[in-house]
Amino acid sequence: MTIQPRYLALLLLFFGLMVLVGSVPGNANALSDRFGDKPLHLIAYIGLSVLCYRAWLAPRKQRIVITLLMIALLGLIDEGIQAALPYRNVSVVDWCFDFLAALMSVGALWLQESFSTLHNPHAKN
Predict the structure, then answer these.
(1) Distance (Å, whole) CA 16 – CA 23
(2) Considering the domain boundaries, does residue 80 fall inside one?
(3) Cβ atoms of residues 75 and 98 within 8 Å
(4) What range does the domain containing 120 cover?
(5) pLDDT tens figures, 14-61
């Protein structure tokens, strides 16, 4: 199993930016009011999931498991940071949406790779 540094760097940069934006007083509430809290979680964590999945050069099943575990951990870290901020709150439902985004992403990536393999039998899993 090999890591692709550019995807891992983008993953960490995006997560850091997301946490930073959400840590500014009033920012998270303003974004949630404008776009909805759950859609924001889905969009952000779909992006993180795709970057995480692409960061690993490994068999497909391993990339799926790693991605699901990493996103679960990042979601917990995100909620933990929110717990430490007096103007934010922790939500198990938010973490569930983060994980749902990861499930949707790896499912879509699995389908995309499966169809690619059907059309190109020499493609790697």
Answers:
(1) 10
(2) yes
(3) yes
(4) 38-125
(5) 999 999 999 999 998 999 999 999 999 999 999 999 999 999 999 999
